[in-house]
Amino acid sequence: MRAVDLIRQKRDGGALADGDLRAFVAGVTDGSWPDYQIAALLMAIVLRGMSLDEAAVLTDAMVRSGRRLDLSDLGGTPVDKHSTGGVGDKTSLVLAPLAAACGALVPMMSGRGLGHTGGTLDKLEAIPGFRTRLSLDEMRRVLVAARCVMIGQTDEIAPADRRLYALRDVTGTVESIPLICASILSKKIAEGFGALVLDVKVGRGAFMKTEADARQLAEWLCGIATRNGLETQALLTAMDAPLGRAVGNANEVIESIETLKGRGPADLEALSVRLAARMLVAAGVASDDGDAERRVRQALASGAGLEAFRKIVAAQGGDPKVLDDYRRLPSVDHTEPWKAPRTGIVARLDAELIGRAAVALGAGRDRADAAVDPAVGIDIVAPVGTAVQAGEPVLVIACASADRIGAARVLLDRAIDIADTAPPPRPLVIGVIK
């Protein structure tokens, strides 16, 4: 069937046959489908949806578009964590070394910023020399040396997803449960994992705004993964306000290192420990949640997690001295505060608008080919619930361009509410799906 016929069929609400889905993925992979036809079918899927069976076939086809790894010779059950995307979400930089320090094998394959959300690869590449593009042989060598590797997709792993991921970011086709599931799971299954822990974000800064939508996504992810023999569980976690206090790239690296030193924000530490503990249980390193959390907190308190991160940075070509000297990271000279317009309590920090403001500064991408400035970003001085006086800073904006700061301020003016009373607290972990 021709590409235009598949587009029409999905546009009109029809299901795509297994062979049609495999032909689509083959066309994405070999370049025979041009970007405009791929984008048209992606939009039709967003608008018309897919069945679980269609999504499972799409996932399998994307896995088969490249190589499937076998890491069984490295010992233990390979385990990874994946977040569906948030603002200020740098948990991977904290939990991966913590899990490795506890004995888990963590081959972590991550992505770049998507829409208003940040990307693990962009954060890691703020570290001078850090290489996220490794060959499979290099990946294995780092795993042997450090028990953890943090990379982007290799050319051999799910190549169809790499092209689809970039197009979804710039064509308004991110918010689709079938496409999100296929993108996440095709990489994880191809990586040869035995276990996966998912962090499904819920709230204003998440792609899933409601708990019902996030729960549906988590159930789809677990269902498709189970069909492919991958043990998976998901935590639903709050993303109304940014996680931690830093939104950007280099500033998020600093906050991650500070957390590994025991000096990080309470919410970032708590979620990182919870997710790392679930990884240990899923990989069979710990017997239960209590045992796992005790091990993770010991790795945090002893500095073993920090040293594991130092080993990862060095093994991947980065400058390990940044862990002790943050001046070695990119920075800008110009900062401006966003000041409270009245006395009161910070009642809202809208994560999506703050994420979009960071993109406007240059910390993310509004086009697939856009460059990221690792030095720019936003630091939260007064998190939700903090009492402030009129004129006191709530945020600090770091950027070298006055024009970009102006664009960011327009968004930040809509993102922040100062009220007379604090909002009711919301739990960090909303639910668990297995």
Write down how many β-strands occur, each being a DSSP E stretch of 2 or more residues.
Answer: 13
* Anisotropy-based shape: globular
Average pLDDT rating:
93
The rounded Rg comes to 21 Å
Which percent bin holds the helix content?
Answer: 40-55%
Commentary on this structure:
The protein has 434 residues and is an alpha/beta fold. 45% of the residues lie in helices and 15% in strands. The protein has 16 helices and 13 strands. It has helices spanning 3-11, 18-30, 35-48, 52-63, 91-101, 120-124, 136-146, 159-170, 177-190, 211-227, 250-260, 266-282, 289-302, 304-315, 351-361, 402-415, and strands spanning 79-83, 106-109, 148-151, 195-202, 231-238, 246-248, 335-339, 344-349, 377-380, 387-388, 393-398, 416-419, 429-433. Strands 1-4-5-13 form a four-stranded mixed sheet, with helices on both faces. The protein has a four-stranded antiparallel sheet with strand order 6-9-11-7. The mean pLDDT is 93.
Q: What's the short version?
A:
The protein is α/β, with parallel strands linked by helices and 434 residues long.
Name the descriptors.
single chain, 434 residues, alpha/beta, four-stranded mixed β-sheet, four-stranded antiparallel β-sheet
Chain-wise SSE layout:
Blueprint: H1 3-11, H2 18-30, H3 35-48, H4 52-63, E1 79-83, H5 91-101, E2 106-109, H6 120-124, H7 136-146, E3 148-151, H8 159-170, H9 177-190, E4 195-202, H10 211-227, E5 231-238, E6 246-248, H11 250-260, H12 266-282, H13 289-302, H14 304-315, E7 335-339, E8 344-349, H15 351-361, E9 377-380, E10 387-388, E11 393-398, H16 402-415, E12 416-419, E13 429-433
Parallel strand pairs: 1-4, 2-3, 4-5
Antiparallel strand pairs: 5-13, 6-9, 7-11, 8-10, 8-12, 9-11
